[in-house]
Design brief:
This is Aminoglycoside phosphotransferase domain-containing protein. Pfam families: APH. The protein is α+β, with helices and mostly antiparallel strands. The protein has two domains: 97 residues, Phosphorylase Kinase, domain 1 (2-Layer Sandwich); 211 residues, Alpha-Beta Complex (Aminoglycoside 3'-phosphotransferase, Chain: A, domain 2), CATH 3.90.1200. Helices cover 39% and strands 14% of the residues. It has eleven helices and ten strands. The strands form three sheets. Strands 4-5-3-2-1-8 form a six-stranded antiparallel sheet. Strands 6-10 form a two-stranded antiparallel sheet. The two termini are 37 Å apart.
Length: 327
């Protein structure tokens, strides 16, 4: 699992500062699952009953995580209240630490494999997000085409230096896939605030019972619960793009073993609602697949030990989706 910083790693001065924000001493912590960063990702609960989510990191822990946390803070400062996103509470810079504090979103990570009802619930949440953030309320963001476009040209890099284990179906269609990816990049342009890093561990869903994922650890060993619907978290890669960009990225990440989730049919439904040709889904999925085919052969980063395994799994599951759609 990811080796994240925790409350116990914070120096006393930083703990005291966070307890001021919380309104009392910390009496319970809950470390959140998912992600690849060494940055902390914890819900802290104080004796006053307040619960806040905290990300804290130092340059020495991971320079990339520090940069991403700063970028997320900039986006959250301008996020509309109506968006299904936990509100920013504080940004703390103390000594070498950068700390991002938000309201704690209730709920748990989506079930894996995905439940169809939860998948539809999240797609509806992206509609709500788009209603609240069109036109894009955060100035200066790159477009999705600019931020994801270079990644989606992975089949260009594969064609220049084909791996020895390249799937024969891909090898026979490289030129077509390269052209599709370029069309997909163009189709992602627009003026909606997009998350642009959509996957299951950046979503929290309340299942109706209000249970928090895994249960919050209290000093006395009991558990806490919260209530809500869907929260979209981790905004470090936010950009400006099409109203279908996040939904297609989410669907590209869903493993649909046996086809029970009808991912391609759901992608078509999203495109139909927004009056876009269904071929847009094929083109976007091809570009995302190209990234993972290329990235699955990159050198392993020891500071992000789970990332390479994730890339290989995404490559294999998305290949099946694209092959189905291509046919």
């Amino acid at each position: 699992m990811t080796l994240r910083l925790t409350w116990s790693d914070f120096p006393d001065r930083l703990r005291a500062r966070l307890e001021e924000v919380l309104g009392g001493p910390v009496v319970g912590t809950h470390s959140c699952r998912g992600g690849f960063s060494s940055s902390s990702a914890e819900i802290l609960r104080s004796s006053a009953g307040r619960r806040l989510f905290v990300k804290a990191v130092r340059e020495q822990d991971n320079p990339g995580s520090m940069r991403l946390n700063r970028a997320e803070a900039t986006v959250l400062e301008q996020m509309p209240d109506a968006a299904p996103v936990p509100a920013l509470v504080a940004v703390i810079e103390q000594d070498e630490w950068f700390v991002l504090v938000t309201e704690a979103a209730p709920g748990e990570l989506p079930a894996e494999p995905w439940d169809p009802a939860q998948l539809d619930q999240v797609l509806a949440a992206f509609d709500a997000l788009q209603d609240a953030t069109t036109p894009c309320p955060v100035p200066g963001l790159p477009s999705v085409a600019e931020s994801l476009g270079p990644d989606m040209l992975g089949f260009d890099r594969v064609a220049e230096d084909p791996p020895t284990n390249l799937d024969p179906w891909l090898a026979a269609r490289l030129d077509e896939l390269r052209a599709a990816a370029r069309r997909g990049i163009h189709a992602l342009d627009g003026d909606t605030l997009c998350h642009s890093d959509v996957r299951a561990d950046n979503l929290l869903i309340v299942d109706g019972s209000g249970h928090i994922d895994g249960g919050e650890v209290n000093i006395d060993g009991s558990a806490s619960i919260g209530r809500g619907e869907v929260s979209i978290v981790d905004w470090a890669w936010a950009s400006r793009g099409s109203r279908v960009a996040d939904a297609l990225q989410l669907l590209s990440s869903v493993e649909d073993v046996g086809g029970t989730l009808a991912v391609n049919a759901r992608a078509d439904a999203v495109l139909d609602v927004h009056g876009l040709p269904r071929k847009v889904g094929s083109d976007v999925f091809a570009g995302i697949l190209g990234f993972f085919v290329d990235a699955s052969r990159w050198p392993r980063d020891p500071s992000l030990p789970l990332l390479q395994q994730h890339r290989i799994q995404r490559r294999d599951s998305l290949l099946a989706l694209v092959r189905e759609r291509w046919a």
